[in-house]
Amino acid sequence: MEILTIVSFLGAAIVLTIAPGPDNLFVLAQSISKGRNAGIYTTLGLCTGILCHTTATAIGLSAVIYHSTLAFNVVKYIGAAYLLYLAYKAFRDKGGKFDLEAEDSLDCRALYKKGIIMNLLNPKVALFFLAFFPQFINYNSGSVPVQMLVYGFLFLIISLVIFVLISLFAGKAGNLLRKNPTINRKINLVQGSLFALIGLNIAFSQK
After folding, report:
1. Of 12, 33, 47, 113, which residue is most buried, by most CB within 10 angstroms?
2. Among 39, 71, 46, 42, which Cα is nearest to 169's?
């Protein structure tokens, strides 16, 4: 693995991670509606999902999803249904009074699980890794699965840093917004809309 190739990978990974997508929009929605800690716990779940996708790509499991229309569609529609369910819950929640201690009562485990499920049930992530990683693999230098795992780990670190930054900034913005009673009642509508948008995007995605 050449240094120039790794640097090129890091540059491309940063650009792709910053670009609006299901994962960072999910973190954004959680951070605005529930605070920065909610975004961070969700980020840890998403990064765990990335680790699973990396492993699946390295051992060839992602290729099975790519070549099986049935497997792709099953994962896709389950993921879309889950996001639409979260959207429904957000729309039903009318919101309440702003509470500075709200972040202390967060269900960290539930947020972490949401992040994992959100990432694992998005088949586009598996296909992204399957298409992205091979462009930087040197097939004449070392084990291909090991190289994929290394790139996956680097991608995970980049995602972790960027998603945490999103959580911090969006959390601050959310705190300011939730102090306004009128806006506070509409935050769940924004969150629900983002969840619905992500879910529909997954539902209509193609290989």
Report:
1. 33
2. 39
